[in-house]
Specification:
It contains 17 helices and 7 strands. A hairpin with a 2-residue loop joins strand 6 and strand 7. Helix content is 59%, strand content 8%.
Length: 364
């Protein structure tokens, strides 16, 4: 790993691990390419925390110009994060008027839960959970305030049936409306009513809003990361940050949920990645109850290679598959412990693809 990447990796946690401080100061004595440091932090989407930590620890090891650039970049990245938080609050207020109930997913809710500050975690999309019966009203409201559907309206019923999020966008903002957490083809259905009955109140910018409960949020980001092959370092940092802040009862609830849904390997993979890449303390989780680590080592290596943290020593099946959907589904299947769940994912995806082809054919 190049020293610039190693430095960013050591700086992407709060608080900085004691054992990392010495390594960071040793790296700062080397001749570093600072544009590479800035680019890596941006690519890994960890700028606010990295730049804040670097300004705090750099001291005399950094030139005045580097200090100046860090201050500007930290301020800009944290302002963007706060901007996303303000947009989320405004959207919740606007969407709640026709549908009455909205829960916040990920984004600012995860920033507060994992980092204690909504300005320390960047987010691209605003994810909102509404009741299935309220999807149409919520979507119409988004269109009325200037968002455009990122899908043909004729496909909406099929998207909802297959549990896909409905995506809307306008310049500088993208919103995803969910009625459940994961797409149908992933064959991992969390009880929707449970999400609403166990919801929690959180404070954002002095405003109290509702979000999904901590155990559901943590489980969701474990599944979401695997769904996308853990392609972003920020997601691994989220597991590390949030996992260390869960209460004992919340940890037990996560483990119970994973057991009930036959998804223990998904959680195991997330925790091992957080430990091995982001230095997380996962001792409060009963790792042994989630399975043997040997079952996730190939997936861990796949993720490390994808992030550029490890040289590619072999070319696995998922690396040579050209179809992106199939490649990510292969990774997902490796993160499920039951053969029936793997087989169901492929079967549902195949049937869904056939339905989509039939729908496209019927339009012509």
């Amino acid at each position: 790993m190049r020293p610039e990447a190693e430095l960013v990796l050591l700086l992407c946690r709060i608080p900085i691990r004691v054992e990392s401080t010495r390594l960071i100061r040793a790296l700062l004595k080397r001749s570093l390419e600072w544009e590479a440091v800035f680019s890596i932090a941006q690519a890994w989407e960890v700028e606010p925390v990295v730049f804040m930590n670097l300004r705090s620890l750099g001291g005399e090891a950094l030139s005045g110009e580097i200090h100046r650039q860090l201050a500007i970049r930290e301020q800009a990245s944290r302002a963007l994060a706060l901007g996303a938080t303000l947009r989320a609050l405004e959207l919740i207020r606007q969407v709640e008027s026709p549908v009455r109930r909205v829960l916040l997913l990920k984004g600012p809710a995860l920033a507060v839960a994992g980092y204690g500050d909504p300005s320390l975690r960047t987010s691209a999309d605003i994810d909102l959970l509404v009741r299935r019966a309220d999807l149409a009203s919520a979507g119409d409201k988004l269109v009325a305030i200037g968002y455009k559907r990122d899908y043909p309206l004729i496909d909406e019923r099929m998207l909802i049936k297959n549990q896909h999020a409905l995506e809307f966008s306008r310049p500088g903002s993208k919103v995803e409306l969910h009625w459940t957490l994961l797409s149908r083809h992933l064959h991992l259905n969390i009880d929707v009513d449970e999400l609403w009955t166990s919801k929690q109140a959180i404070e954002l910018g002095g405003v109290t809003i509702e979000a999904i409960a901590a155990q559901h949020l943590f489980f969701y980001i474990c599944a979401h990361g695997a769904k996308h092959e853990w392609a972003r370092l920020r997601w691994i940092c989220d597991i590390a940050q949030f996992g260390e802040r869960l209460s004992h009862g919340e940890v037990e609830s996560v483990l119970t949920l994973a057991t009930r849904l036959h998804a223990k390997r998904l959680v195991l993979l997330a925790l091992v990645l957080a430990r091995d890449i982001a230095g997380a303390d996962i001792s409060r989780f009963d790792i042994g109850s989630l399975g043997e680590e040997k079952h996730v080592q190939a997936a861990v290596s796949h993720v490390r290679q994808g992030l550029g943290l490890e040289a590619q020593s072999f070319v696995g099946v998922s690396r040579i598959v050209r179809d992106e959907r199939l490649r990510t589904l292969l990774f997902w299947a490796r993160a499920r412990e039951r053969l029936r769940d793997r087989a169901a994912s492929f079967t549902i995806m195949l049937l869904s693809s056939q339905q989509q082809k039939a729908l496209r054919w019927s339009r012509h």
